[in-house]
Design brief:
It is a single chain. The longest helix has 16 residues. A hairpin with a 2-residue loop joins strand 1 and strand 2. The chain starts with a strand and ends in an 11-residue tail after the last helix. The protein is built from 9 helices and 9 strands. It is of the alpha/beta class and about 240 residues long.
């Protein structure tokens, strides 16, 4: 495997209730990139992430992360699901949620140590959420909840971040905090794979792109992949036009 490819997917096919959702997809995610995944509604973007992470059954295909299976490197992977898929009524504090990021290293039986709590507090601080550590998660706004989930990934000290629409429904300030985090983590040598929905911010926020509509339409560097022809091929052309 090329040292520049950190996530390698070959011939991935997935289905819901025997209805194919993704067909024979090959995906190469470049190490230390900020990679966006885009596609129309129903394109299989979330399904692709879950298939890569082993969270949903695949019909065929292989996945390698850092040249190994997902199970072998799971401590180095953080997954931030769609906000609407989380039970926010669960009675727990923001700090407790972030501490969950330490359990991949501790195991579920061991209690977090002072060092782990300090790591969690530092992660909250990085997301500007230090003043909400004792706040019940259900009492936070949408943007604040998203920051807490990203703080959990930071506390895990992951090397690869998989994020499913982290910017959906958040305020502009939270959006900036999240993008600044992605850019800062890239400087630390980390990789982000992010499902994104706003074509207008793609080129500013990310440097690599995967365009999906049940099949991979195009993938590669943002400057080469974000083209009108590729968007049209994915049924995403619509009223959006690439600036010359």
């Amino acid at each position: 495997m090329s040292k520049n490819i950190i996530v390698k997917v070959e011939d991935l096919t997935m289905a819901y209730h025997d209805k194919p959702v993704l067909w024979d997809n090959d995906v190469n995610i470049i190490e230390n990139s900020r990679t966006a995944i885009i596609g129309p509604n129903g394109a299989g973007k979330s399904t692709l992430l879950k298939g890569i992470l082993g969270l949903q059954k695949t019909l065929s295909g292989t996945v390698e992360i850092m040249g190994k299976s997902v199970k072998q490197v799971h401590k180095k992977i953080a997954y931030i699901p769609q906000s609407n898929s989380v039970n926010w009524d669960f009675p727990t504090t923001a700090l407790d949620v972030v501490l969950m990021g330490r359990y991949v290293h501790l195991g579920w039986i061991k209690r977090p140590k002072k060092k782990d709590i300090e790591t969690a507090r530092n992660a909250l601080h990085k997301m500007g959420m230090q003043d909400y550590a004792k706040r019940q998660i259900s009492q936070l706004s949408g943007g604040q909840k998203q920051r807490v989930f990203i703080a959990r990934a930071i506390a895990q000290n992951a090397e690869i971040y998989f994020m499913d629409e982290p910017l959906a429904g958040v305020d502009k300030n939270t959006e900036k905090v999240i993008i600044d985090f992605l850019k800062d983590s890239q400087k630390e040598g980390k990789t982000s794979i992010v499902i994104h929905h706003d074509l207008n911010t793609l080129a500013d926020y990310f440097d690599h792109l995967v365009i999906l509509n049940k099949r991979i339409i195009a993938q590669g560097k943002m400057s080469e992949t974000l083209t009108q022809a590729n968007l049209d091929a994915a049924d995403m052309g619509g009223g959006f036009k690439i600036n010359a």
